[in-house]
Write a structure and sequence with these properties.
The protein is α+β, with helices and mostly antiparallel strands. It has two domains: 227 residues, outer membrane lipoprotein receptor (LolB), chain A, CATH 2.50.20; 217 residues, 4-Layer Sandwich (Metallo-beta-lactamase, Chain A), CATH 3.60.15. Strands 1, 2, 3, 4, 5, 6, 7, 8, 9, 10, 11 and 12 form a twelve-stranded antiparallel sheet that branches. A seven-stranded mixed sheet has the order 13-14-15-16-17-18-19. Helix 2 runs antiparallel to helix 4. It is elongated, with a radius of gyration of 25 Å. It starts with a helix and ends in a 6-residue tail after the last helix.
Length: 477
Amino acid sequence: MFKKTLFVLAIVSSVTLTVGGQDARSVVAAASKAMGADQLKTIQYSGPGTEYSFGQAYNPGSPWPAWKNKSYTRTIDFDARAMRIERVADAPEPGRKGGGLQPGAMQQLIVNANTPWAAQLPIWITPYGFLRQAAANTATMTSQTVGGKKYTIVTFIAPNKAKVNGYIGADNMVDKVETWMDTPMLGDTLYEAVYSNYKDFGGVKVPTRMVEQQGDYPTLELTVTDAKVNAPANIAAPQRGGAPAGGGAPAGPSSQKLADGVFLILPAYAALAVDMKDGIVVIEGPQSEARADAIIAEVKKDIPNKAIKYVVNTHGHFDHSSGLRTFVAEGATIITHQTNKGYYEKIFALPHTLNPDKLAQNKAKVKVETMGDKRVLTDGTHTVELYRTQGTNHNEGLLMAYLPKEKILVEADSFNPPAQADAPPAATPSPANVNLLDNISRLKLDVETIVPIHYPPDGRKVTIAELKRAVGTRSTN
């Protein structure tokens, strides 16, 4: 699946070459002139398009799930190193499968000296941004034929030590820009943008078809119907100060004892630790190595002198699984749904050279155990029942964990409580909330406390009553 990611960074020679009597600097200059990029300060292009939620596939064999936009406008100010995206979203397709939040109506990126390179890429992976960066850095070049078309490939080394390759055709148009960035699950991840069907807008050649991809699947497909060049961008810097909406981390300690040997690790993304006789069971390894490290450190404080035996993975979406590699490096075995085993074993073997994590450094063996619809972990004192959530469109292998003695249910993405407990319920109940309550009823689970992985920012105890209130008149009886 990730053949392009494994298409290692050796595509371009590391020494400066000449092609047809040109060097990299002259190739870049010729392309900039032909495309009208020399005097380009700002550009705005718009049209209908589709965005895709990276890392939120319904199952390992599915592409990233789509969000369609009636219109999509991207404005870039190259001198200010700033970008704004404005969208008019279409209604989600009925039966859409997979995760990810619908993109907001507006998104801004302001680049400064402290902005990570990966965050800047939407600006520099454009044809004009690439040409600017290639001119500002020591570029090399070679030639290659792709799909029967001959390209001059201009390369420079980005601040993250990855190569950035621009494919320039005989017409001096930039047809593709590619580079690699670190992502926690996929490691050195190919990020590419393909440009075609160039047209002239105000003396600047603009591709009217743009496709961006990560992990072999599209993240953006855009048909450009209009473009404006060197118009005032008016991209305001983000406002500083003030607390973020919904509050920050919950007050108090970062863990709570819910019962003997059962600990809630906060803030969101939350995790639950259960003290078993033969080792600790942690439910969820989310977000990143940093978050996983914080969870592991808190678990060791709560349950000292005992190893973590299992980390239960609720599902394969990257925000809920990007800490798994850290638990594997710690010696834990992953428990996940059977759809994920081969996928995890494959992607965990991918190179992590741009930002080597603990697993890349200690090369611990990846141990994955699977389940179907149900699995029970018990030591005679504590019992953790794992169930696949049936009937959900969120993820094929979505798991929830139930502790029958404590009457605690751990779930991810089926019920994300509002920031305030007394917030009025939605006029139409969320299908995910209804589905969770139906599954609780189907399994006859006696739930009192719910531990949502997306824990509310006030750190309150979430009860089954909150879920029932969100769903409305339905009940588990």
